[in-house]
Write a structure and sequence with these properties.
This protein has two domains: about 5-230, P-loop containing nucleotide triphosphate hydrolases (Rossmann fold), CATH 3.40.50.300; about 230-300, 2-Layer Sandwich (Alpha-Beta Plaits), CATH 3.30.70.920. The chain has about 325 residues and is α/β, with parallel strands linked by helices. Helices cover about 40% and strands about 30% of the residues. Helix 3 packs across helix 4. The chain starts with 5 loop residues before the first strand and ends with a helix. The structure holds adenosine-5'-triphosphate and magnesium ion. Magnesium ion binds near residues 49 and 165. Magnesium ion (MG) binds near residues 49 and 165.
Length: about 325
């Protein structure tokens, strides 16, 4: 395994508020490896942006350390900045100029010659499919187009790590999918991408690895598959034609080694197993042999929301509706 490109150790940041101190970041340990898409998932107020601001040298931690590409964020902020790109929650394009002009300006800000900036802009416009709108004034762009320009701006100077704070918030599903493709292209170009999101599906589909944050702490970390494997397992829900055989069913399930848990309530049977798709045929055969009639059967695999529920006792969807907006 190569050395991690982002490392944090016991990172903490507190804010004072009228209702007392807010532990925005409360002891965060992270490692992000070169070339991966690292997702940072958590509800509103979890501390994602605050962590990102510390990593990008825009805020100072109260304690703990963080290094990017081997440079300490508080002692060597200049070197850190040269190695990172950052696209904040609000984005950074200059609206009265075209996308291409924005890119060239960004290159010039990073000490490129006019020719280097022009060439790099052209390269990114092609690589990231911005050609359709690159020569229009940015204030005519759709939300999705602006976001895609922001991402290109973030990697103009070839940073090792690109930080994206909620890159797809507010985009419709199609624009979101477009941006996912663009972010995957960045990975193919060798850029490490560290992105925050409060969309479960996004973290699941896009991240090579992810951390789930809640109240300033990392509550779970791993690949999406690993994390989902940690929780209860797959759930097979069976609707029975009648409840006359419930005792026999309970005995049969109790003897099956792959059944982790089950509940039987009138005609509703819920069975928790390790790998639902593998054991489904055996279960169906068993019911058939015993003459147990089934009305419906469905298989549900765990989502990252189950992981969050398992770790915090709340669901991300609940915290979303209770959490307010951006
Ligand atoms: N400058 C500040 N002053 C006081 N409190 C702050 C400040 N910045 C953030 N906080 C608080 O710190 C906590 C973490 O905020 P942060 O913006 O890091 O969360 P987030 O995970 O990015 O949330 P969101 O999904 O809404 O963007 C919140 O309770 C927030 O109110
Ligand atoms: Mg935020």
């Amino acid at each position: 395994m190569p050395d991690p490109v982002v490392v944090t150790k016991d990172l903490k940041k507190y804010f004072s508020s009228r209702s007392g101190p807010v532990q925005a970041v409360d002891g965060v340990d992270l490692e992000v490896f070169p070339g991966e898409i690292f997702g940072f998932l958590g509800p509103n107020g979890a501390g994602k942006t605050t962590t990102l601001r510390i990593l990008t040298t825009l805020a100072k931690a109260d304690s703990g350390t963080a290094t990017i590409a081997g440079f300490d964020v508080s002692r060597e902020p200049g070197k850190v900045r040269r190695n990172i790109g950052y696209v904040g929650q609000a984005g950074g394009a200059d609206r009265p100029a075209t996308g291409r002009e924005n890119l060239i300006l960004q290159g010039r800000l990073y000490d490129m010659t006019p020719q280097q900036a022009k060439d790099r802009a052209a390269e990114l416009i092609t690589a990231l499919d911005l050609g359709e709108f690159a020569d229009r004034i940015a204030h005519t762009y759709s939300g999705g187009q602006l976001r895609r320009l922001d991402v290109a701006l973030g990697i103009m100077h070839r940073p090792k790590v690109l930080f994206l704070d909620e890159p797809t918030t507010g985009l419709d599903p199609q624009n979101r999918a477009n941006l996912w493709v663009q972010i995957e292209k960045l990975r193919d170009m060798g850029v490490t991408v560290f992105l925050t999101t409060h969309y479960l599906e996004e973290a699941d589909a896009l991240s090579d690895r992810l951390a789930i944050m809640d109240h300033g702490r990392i509550v779970a970390e791993g690949t999406p598959v690993e994390l989902k494997k940690q929780v209860a397992g797959d759930t097979i829900s069976v609707g029975l034609r009648d409840d006359s055989r419930n005792e026999a069913i309970a005995t049969l399930l109790g003897q099956r080694p792959y059944v982790r848990d089950f509940t039987l309530d009138d005609c509703r049977l819920r069975i928790v197993v390790e790998e639902g798709s593998k054991v489904m045929p055996d279960l169906l055969r068993l019911f058939d042999q015993e003459g147990i009639e089934i009305a419906t059967i469905t298989l549900a695999v765990p989502t990252l929301d189950d992981v969050f529920l398992n770790k915090t006792g709340r669901t991300l969807r609940d915290t979303e509706s209770a959490g307010g907006g951006q």
